[in-house]
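Format notes (please read before filing issues)

Several people have asked whether sequences and structure tokens are stored in separate files. They are not. Every record keeps both together, in the order shown below: the sequence lines, then the token lines. Line labels are part of the format and must not be stripped during preprocessing.
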Amino acid sequence: MSVTTAPPPPVRRRGRPGRTQFRTSLAGLGFMAPFLVVFALVFLAPLAYSIYLSLFRDQLIGGNSFVGFENYLQAFGDPKFWDGALRVAIFLVVQVPVMLVLALVAALALDSGRLHGSSFFRIGIFLPYAVPAVVAVLMWGFMYSERLGLAGNINSFVGFDLVTPFTQQWILVAIGNIVTWSFVGYNMLIFYSALRTISPDLYEAAGLDGAGQFRILWSIKIPALRGAIVIATIFSIIGSFQLFNEPNILKTIVPNLIPTYFTPNMYAYNLSFVGQQYNYAATIAIIMGLITAIIAYVVQLRGNRKELS
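Then the structure lines:
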């Protein structure tokens, strides 16, 4: 009697861990390659070229020559640059909180469920964000006009200059009003989206515990909005330092009120495209980019710390 035994199962040969890991990394790199190429072309290359330009200067004798960090030293002692930077800083400190508070109030009102016609208000508040910046500035510029616009009509009605947006002391407020009108709806949507992610169970539990609307607002909604507030604040800070369209378009209406260095972006633009000082304009742009990045990072860091605490 012969006994037959089943053949042993085939042993699957395992590849070397190093080769498998290499193939996995190569596949991942293949998926990321299109993004990396686009990122390098649209972000890293312009940034590197701007830094390169900032290290040179056009001179009457010698042409475009390497000057190291002299352009940066010149910018740090340039009163026009610091005048524009201070103006943007004031604009940031005043306009951003006002805009975010208005957006927060609008989002809370829409989320409360007690506002009749909430869909209409939601679209109505967001609609100015869809209006092109040029159209918005021209529209408000017409209303600010003291001869043909709404401000002039109000002044004629009361008999004295009550509304004077096109004056030296009110022009920054007038620009802030345009920016606030345009971006309240955008920030409102950020806050409203965050509010809609709160579980209804939390409201139900708070109601069973006898919490009122103010207590629910303070203990549930505001903490849930902390991340959205940080994001909206960072976006607003970046937008404030990029202030350009509104003053640059209004300058065509009131050229005596808005100088070419009203904001650092306007200063860099006019240096580059009017004064043909590309190297110094690149220096101004690099400095403003660094200042914006540092402030946005500090805001994000503080926001994350409060969220973790």
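For reference, the curators noted about this record: Strands lie at 56-59, 63-66. The chain has two domains: 27-66, 78-306.
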